Amino acid sequence: MCGIAGIFNLNGEPASPVVLRRMTDAIAHRGPDGEGFYSDGFIALGHRRLAIIDLSPAGHQPMISRDQQVVLSYNGEIYNFQEIRTQLESLGHQFHSKTDSEVVLNAWNQWGADCVNRFNGMYAFAVWDKREQSLFLVRDRYGIKPLYYACWGQTFLFGSEQKAILAHPAAKRELDKRALLEYFTFQNLFTDRTLLEGVKLLSPASIAKIPLGGNGSPQISRYWDYRFREPDHPADPREYREELDRLMRQAVNRQLVTDVEIGAYLSGGMDSGTLTALAAKDLPYIKTFTCGFDMSSASGIELSYDERVKAEAMSALFKTEHYEMVLKAGDMERCMPKLVRHLEEPRVGQSYPNYYAAQLAGKFVKVVLSGAGGDELFGGYPWRYYRATVCNDFEDYIDQYYLYWQRLIDNRHIKTIFAPIWDDVKEVWTRDIFRDVFLTHDNELNRPEDYINHSLYFEAKTFLHGLFIVEDKLSMAHGLEARVPFMDNDLVDFAMQCPVNLKLNNLAEVVRINENESGSKQNQYFQKTKDGKQILRDVMRQYIPDVIANAEKQGFSAPDGSWFKGESIEFVKRKLMSGNARIYDWLDKKTVHALINEHLSGEQNRRLLVWSLLSMEEYINQCF
User: Fold this and answer.
1) Is position 2 annotated as part of the catalytic site?
2) 30 and 162 in contact (C-beta within 8 Å)?
3) What is the pLDDT of residues 196-224, one digit of tens each?
4) Where are the beta strands (DSSP E) in 403-560?
5) For the whole prediction, is pTM greater than 0.85?
6) Which pLDDT tens digit goes with each residue over 401-418?
């Protein structure tokens, strides 16, 4: 895992090696094991290396093909690289290293951009192809590894992180107001925008071609997309369970290939527990890592957020070498500047526990297994999907699900809160942003299962993508590679074709209630339940304790709701209620203060909004 950056002067002017080094220095944390540069007139590629496979100098990047026609700067892991290498050797290609990077280089030389259809892994890379006199930027199917780009004048820039782009003197720092509105609706960005005007995030499963002499606007093609659908002729449920068991074991085994030590997050939940159980079979005494929380001032549902006891029990069962840390309210306040600097812009959830978890793991290992993706593939959030299970048509579905996903500020408050910049954003329709997630999707919906599959598609494209960006930035902040076995290609393909009734227990009952009843009985299905990932629970019982397999779904979150109105209340007031908070250059102070006070008084739980405001205030102070 590494960091990449580059300069492409479209007008043929020489690219500065000095500036390129400045760009790679900005992301040195992503690659503490080495650096490399390629410069040829108007094109310059940089690389920071985190050595994982083949630690020798033979893995140095950027890599140049034997015929000198292709130059690669690569960040990622291709888990099936050995099979692809064997095929390339049979076609006459020679190798000088044992890296997957060289496999990617020769695969591009052999098959061009079509090579990505052979890759099973996570990656973001840049290729300078002299044959086509074009720069290519490529991102993996699921968006596990990020890749940003921008063009100012005739200078095209790219980097694993925005800070690499901002290190170039041509870069401009201006807040994207449309993106700000998008973020404060969804606590995420669904489009390719960032909070920096002119800086874009290459979409997952995309290839961008930038030809020499062009205008800097990439020619972007999509090579893959999620397709959750009901099978025409479902197999026996036992066959699905047997196949899932095989694919889970295969996915974990594929991702254990490394020349450095590998560990695993162990949160106390089913997904991380399953990965640890399977990995421990091949790696005795594997190191595991858990973050817990000081619950002395927590209340209500947040009292269950500390999962250390469950994690410790599983560590004992799997005989892991286990490490823990306990977070307190002050830890959130303490890490905010570093967190925001590495995250670069706020995304989904309260991400500082992830920062500390990565910091802990990074002290002991260079690679860690993460359970991200299990919920989104196998239906881990039924209380979300059930809100739009019975609809009249696609537009009705959009209306219902869109209302639920207004996580921070709903349509009633948008105009008031954004009053200082309303003239600049009044043409932004967030419902259209939501709907456009399905722009290339088949939206003919005939039964409740179709609506569930639409929700799974939506959350994989948006929520999961946001989680991957957070995972990447915060793990790489500590020189740590996070691997996500649930996103193995074969396992994803299986999950997308797995019948909904094997994932969710109570769909038929929810449909009946939706049609004929309302009130408290319906609401019980709109709360956290054990009704989700049923096939995964059934299969994993042979590896993890029943108490874990049968547990209610719970996210990795700190008791912020209690802390914001308790131990951290002065921090919140100092950052957001004082007269010098800069966020009110864009948001209406009076309206925002009223919403914050609703949380501080206990009238409403607005912990997501408070967290987002704190993060945005720190982001603005650092970036502008």
Assistant:
1) yes
2) no
3) 999 999 999 999 999 998 888 999 999 99
4) 481-483
5) yes
6) 998 898 888 888 899 999
Instruction: Say how many CA atoms lie within 13 Å of 35 toward its Cβ.
Output: 16
Q: Which of 2, 151, 291, 391 is catalytic?
A: 2
Q: What pLDDT does residue 522 have?
A: 47
Helices (H) and strands (E) in the chain, counts: 28, 17
User: Token pair for residue 184?
Assistant: 């404060």
Report how far apart the first and last C-alpha atoms of the chain are (Å, whole number).
Answer: 30
- Check if the beta carbon of residue 502 is closer than 8 Å to that of residue 240: yes
Give ∠ CA 346-350-355 in degrees, rounded to 5. 85
Whether the upstream peptide bond of residue 62 has omega within 30° of 0, thus cis, is: yes
Buried b (16+ CB within 10 A) or exposed e, 305-318: bbbbebbbebbebb
- Residue for token pair 């000081």: 294
Structure tokens at 531: 């009704």
3-state SS assignment for residue 233: coil
Tokens of 307: 């999962």
Q: In sequence order, which residues have a C-beta less than 8 Å from that of residue 248 and are 6 or more positions away?
A: 274, 278, 485, 491, 539, 540
Cβ(286)–Cβ(263) under 8 Å?
yes
Q: Would you call 253 helix, strand, or coil by DSSP?
A: helix
Phi and psi based region of residue 174 (left: phi greater than 0; alpha: psi -120 to 50; beta: remaining): beta
Contacting residues for 557 by C-beta, under 8 A, at least 6 apart: 305, 349, 350, 353
User: How confident is the model over 281-332, as pLDDT tens digits?
Assistant: 999 999 999 998 887 655 555 555 677 888 999 999 999 999 999 998 889 8
* DSSP alpha helix (H) spans, 367-419: 374-378, 382-385, 394-404, 411-417
Q: Is the pLDDT of residue 545 over 60?
A: yes
Q: Are strands 287-293 and 321-327 parallel, antiparallel or unpaired?
A: parallel
The set of residues, in sequence order, having a beta carbon less than 8 Å from that of 481 and lying 6+ positions away, is 1, 50, 52, 77, 366, 367, 368, 475
